[in-house]
Amino acid sequence: MSEFTVDTPLPHIPDNLNIPQFILREIASPRPQRSLSVPFFINDKTGRRISYEEVHKRTYGLANALSLKYAIGKGDVVCLLSPNHTDYAIVIWAVQTLGGIITPANPSYTADELTHQLTTSKAKLIVTHSACRNAAVEASRSSGISGDRLVLLVDPTLSPTVNSSTVEDLITFGISRPQSYKAQYLLPGEARTTIAFLSFSSGTTGKPKAVEISHFAVIANVIQMAAHYQIYDPVRPSRHMLPGDIALAVLPFFHIYGLVVIMHYILYCGMSIVVVPKFNFSNFLDSIIRHKITHLFLVPPQIVLLCKHQSVQKYDFSHVKFCLSGAAPLSGELMEQVTSILPNASIGQGYGLTETCASVALLPPDRKLATIGSAGRLLPGVVARVLKPDGTFAAEGEQGELVVTGPSMALRYLDNPKATAETFVGGWVRTGDEVIIKDFEVFVVDRLKEIIKVRGFQVSPAELEGHLLLHPDAVDACVVGVPHEYSGEVPLAFVVLESKARQRVNNNGSEEQALKRILCKHVSDAKAQYKWLAGGIEFVDEIPKNPSGKILRRSLREKAKALAKPVMARL
Fold it and tell me: Which Gene3D superfamilies does the entry mention (predicted)?
């Protein structure tokens, strides 16, 4: 049996700490030391610097208030619905200090999408950014969460319009009261099974599922990345991540990439994080210069803009020394182009899943420019196999499905034994990605699973298909991804019409276009924007299926590629 694992030694991973203890107490390992002058977080807009001491104090105050006012304790789930915010991590660590669990939600979710997450996770409290409040209120009603268990994470530039508790109020209240809670202390081994996050992933099919991620998994992945980039080496300290370096957090913290790689790993390295609530390209360029950003963590659509937008030429990005692209494949052409924009940066890709608790492979530490097409070198502690269609395991250079194990694997899908059995097999995670491994580097060849990746976000075809079928004019549907220069992929729907609707559009171009617009609006009215049918709709006589009724999706993907016209991103 062929297994792939690098021989870089992995330091001890503590299994008796929760994440706040690991990040805030700095007792777990000989990590790089953060100077008192190096802040944890920097507010992108105002430049406000938030020190380790302030983060520690605010975390304590919020934990105390959540215990006093809402009795949050061991095993209680709190939903965090917010764009990036300097208090995002403080909410996480306060809840986890009490033994609670965070389920991070996409701030662009509609009320229906959020209701699914709240009911699946059994959340007892919602902490929502003021910009997301309307969806939170509607979803809380639908899921049976009372209105007084909704806390606002306020944008300081906006005034709250309702009489709700705010995170700031709770912190002030908690700091002013004696400690009411008993901090969670874990016995040896307990961190491996104590849940820290319920992060939602579409897995291979269907509606998003709650992935149970333990404290140990997050801590392990942080230490794996630290070992990969040699930050422990006293003789040859990492040139990639040094205390005092500054990373730009423009990717969302609710996504596993932003949550583990940017938030937790970067802080562990003694670096600072500039917190950006929302991506705007011109503001993004200004932020890189204004804060002298050294580290960029991006997704391919942002790389496209860096390479193609005319305004980029007037900026000097020579201070950027590291750029990692993740969440979706980055073409070799784009990687070569971005080297001229970031001339002093090490540039490459990373690979991972929510189910693997972030990183499985990253840009090798000894490379300034990654191997073209490589998704990164396997991290220390990761063991990979490549499963061929005949059930045997591939040798180096042979193609098959990537199956991985290691200390950071998630535990299971919450209350979903069927999906768990399909993905989590004897401690191994079936990724659903077809790869080749060569010299311990992962080359993603094709996606076996059905999920569409739009700007790094997961879109489940089954979710969109099910919604299309709610429309009376649609009797069958299949959604596939088509290539898009900016978004990577966008959904395109093949729809079989009901007989009267079919007669209405036959040989009538204006009726056909009108119905396509109606069906597209049917989706856009109910789903987050990245799920919209940007690839369009094609009417077909039937959806091809095998004898057991399973959609022959691969044939429709090929048809979609032939139909799709190359769409240039509007820059």
Answer: 3.30.300.30, N-terminal domain of ligase-like (3.40.50.12780)
User: What's the topology of domain 452-563?
Assistant: GMP Synthetase; Chain A, domain 3 (3.30.300)
The DSSP element (H or E) to which 353 belongs, if any, is strand 351-353
Arithmetic mean of pLDDT over the chain: 90
Contact 61, 175 (CB under 8 A): yes
Distance, in Å, from the CA atom of 180 to the CA atom of 201, rounded to the nearest integer, reads: 35
Q: What is the C-alpha separation between 499 and 413, in angstroms, rounded?
A: 40
Per-residue pLDDT of 287-296, as tens digits, reads 999 999 999 9
pTM above 0.70? yes
pLDDT digits (tens, 9 = 90+) for 203-244: 555 678 999 999 999 999 999 999 999 887 666 656 778 899
Residue 171 tokens, joined: 């912190």
| Dist. CA 219–CA 111, nearest whole Å | 32
- The continuous run of DSSP H or E covering 108 comes out as none
- 475, 439 contact by CB (below 8 A): no
Here the tokens at position 57 are 């104090």
Q: Are 379 and 360 in contact (CB under 8 A)?
A: yes
Q: Tell me how far apart the alpha carbons of residues 277 and 390 are, in angstroms, rounded to a whole number.
A: 47
| Closest listed residue to residue 36, CA positions, set 244, 266, 264, 234 | 244
Q: Give the pLDDT band of residue 477 (cuts 50, 70, 90).
A: confident
